[in-house]
Amino acid sequence: MKDPMIDIRNLSVTFNRGRKPVKAVNGVSLSVNSGEVVALLGESGSGKSVTMRSLLRLHPKGTSIEGSMRVAGNDVTELSARELADYRGATVSMVFQEPRLALDPVYTLGQQIEEAIMRHENVSRREAALRALGLFEKVRIPSPERRLMNYPHEMSGGMLQRSMIAMAIACNPKVLLADEPTTALDATVQIQILLLIRELQKEYGLSVIFVTHDIGVAAEVADRIAVMYAGRIVEEGKVADVIQNPKHPYTRGLLGARVELAHGRDRLITIPGAPPDLAALPPGCAFAPRCAEAAAQCITDVPRLTAIDDTASVACVRYA
Amino acid sequence: MSAVTTDIDAPVGVLVAKSPGFWSNVLRRLIRDPVAMIALAIIVILVLIAIFAPYIAPYDPSKGSVIRRLKPIGTPGYIFGTDELGRDMLSRLIHGTRLSLIMGVIPVPIAFIIGSTIGIIAGYAGGIVNTLIMRTIDVFYAFPSVLLAVALSGALGSGLTNALVSLTVVFIPQIARVAESVTTQVRKLDYVDAARASGASAATIIRVHILGNVLGPIFVFATSLISVSMILASGLSFLGLGVRPPDAEWGLMLNTLRTAIYSNPFVAALPGVMIFITSICFNLFSDGLRTAMDVKS
Amino acid sequence: MINLVGEPSPILPVGERGGPAQPLISVRGLLKHFPVKGSGFLKPKKVVHAVDGVDFDILKGETLGVVGESGCGKSTTARLLMQLITPDRGEILFDGESAGETLPLSEYRRQVQMVFQDSYASLNPRLTIEESIAFAPRVHGVPAAKAIARAHDLLHRVGLEPVRFAGRYPHELSGGQRQRVNIARALALEPRLVILDEAVSALDKSVEAQVLNLLLDLKRDFGLTYLFISHDLNVVRFMCERVMVMYLGKVAEIGERDAIFEKTRHPYSSALLASMPKMNPGERTLEPPLSGDPPNPIDPPAGCRFHTRCSFAEDVCRQTLPPLSRISGAQSAACLMAMTNSGHSRAPVQMEA
Is A25:A11 a contact under the CB 8 Å cutoff? Predict the structure, then answer.
């Protein structure tokens, strides 16, 4: 089998601001093949965004990163500042939750896309402008010539997210990182963006990591799902398997708490309690305090992510 | 996500575990800021000097002598030298602390009270009331503060009280502006809407929900004005619009010593150094206060 | 489902007047246009048609869900109902009495309370939790000690131990805990109607489920009526007895839950439903049900507001604004396809005898 496009091994990310260091990611290993879409699913504070941002080394100063990350043959932790600048955008690009904050308000969208192309490739502005027009048509923005001359504040949220995607694929990257790109959008627009990402992914053969808190969104776009809890991956598998036959008690709880299943019942089944404080993680399984099936071993030992068949792994003593 | 803080042990007999309030947190952080604490210490020392001036000063600040004129720094008995009338500089600087601090500090709290009131009313009321108040304020704002202070003092006539009045008037629009913008921001927050939905009157909402959240930032801004006020006050005295000779005040001393600037420049610069030290201390303290109040947790 | 018809609620609501058949809230012709900033001076004056003539009832003891895209007027409707902004036109009847006229505003506000989406912005950072909850009763003249006691009782009811939480400040709580505090605060005046404006939308899914359960418990125990605004149709389907779909400041469709979700009559409602992500990876959405973003409420299209995005639109839709008309006892829709003899080719035709 050929090398995976993204290979994260034993990644840990610690933020050293404030009084206590916060270990946001705690030994995550994940690989994504070429042309594969993996959804990182988790609640706030689960470390899903931090894991993904590590692939672009987007963390603030004073953050310590351990472990190894290889993307398309590059060792991400070893890249020099110059190599990093070439790598960002050309090999790996990112789509953010709030395009309004990610785009520069004082330049038109056309200028920003042209700049992005010209920074990575030796082309004239004229050619870059033509490419930008093609990209706007590709992401199906109506009247693209006129829209390229718009400033970000003149666009609606959905159109802005389309422009953001156009910019992300401008330099033909191999990997697209999507950080909750549809969370701030209306459902009617969200589905359009999801379909667009799916379509572009197929056409360009992109590897995609899609961070989301919404199982439904993951079900719409992903080939595989990795569920994160308190900085660790607790379950990983094919999208249909995870959704129809979840193994880890947390995943089961999350799927069981969905309102869609509560039809005709007058209460929802919930996971009791709240996620742990990342600055003071329990010594054993981070989910043990909320788990109905916790055994004595769960409180003392951190369960390892163990393969249970060719495609699925779970971090729970019941499957070890 | 916000980390849950460690539980505070409830004292025996008290039902509810009370978290430390906002201001005690600010105080704690401020005490840990060495720069702000050094600045505060110098300010305290200056205040003490002002209070005990007659006991500290080695000589009478107004008693001169023709034979002792313009002695340089380090002259035995007169370590800071003497001025153009042969008066002891050290004694004059010590006595000058009194008037200089009064002129620098007094206008600010008065302007703080008046300016905040105007600004908070404008910010909370919004609409036409806001427009009327703020456009009037803008008229004052249109003049540079030095020019406005000089013009007002000139119109009112020289003297300490008139200088204080004109400085106060200069600062009111500035404070009102800050108060208005902070209040407008707080006014839009949901908790103010929740309070309105509970049927509370405007006065109650301002007292309970607005004041606590806007006074802090306005206060920080006002402390930063103290240094400006000191410099403006010195300027007024320098122009002969503030304190009149033979009273000791740093700005006035700077003025009278300017004739000696070539013969004895170090002595002539001393009052300026004092103004500089004092105003920078107030500035550093206000910066420390701002940082201490900035953080949410 | 709780509070089935015929099952008497354990506590009779305070101030009950008009009897169970009378709607708790009747809104008629509610209209609010906001002027656009910067327009009107040497430029044509522009207005946002935020809420553009809306009629609906909230029945006693029910949960009415409001759904729609951003800019459809959900939140403005909530703020109008809460009297935080004054309507340009229209009437709000509370249990048969006109709010602000026969029913004084302060009394109305005591009976209608609201929970906002942003749990942090809706709590005063300088007040402790108990002070925030006790504020409203204090305003209405409850003595301090009694108001604090009530705050502790309510904290207990929303699942926060008063001993641990009453003296804390908002930033020391998690999002879910803060939203519980906001719910407790809304209940402090013993209201009859609680407006929940995206109250659970910002919470994590596992926490959201806990808060939804809490809302159901409180509704049963206090005999409350809810207006539940949300963009999540699944949550609305679980929580609400009746649902109102809004589009560009107008009601597109309103009716009983099962009618709206299963016998949808307005094409916009169907599109909204079809836009929800499918939970089965084998049946993924292939075509987006709607293209483009919701149009700008500054100048809404003439005729039916939805015709620019509707796949069934005909000429008549561009000219005629369809009124909200009754389809069955359980449902009303504002669509020409649902009205007899409307001129639309898909409209039911009634032969004249």
Answer: yes
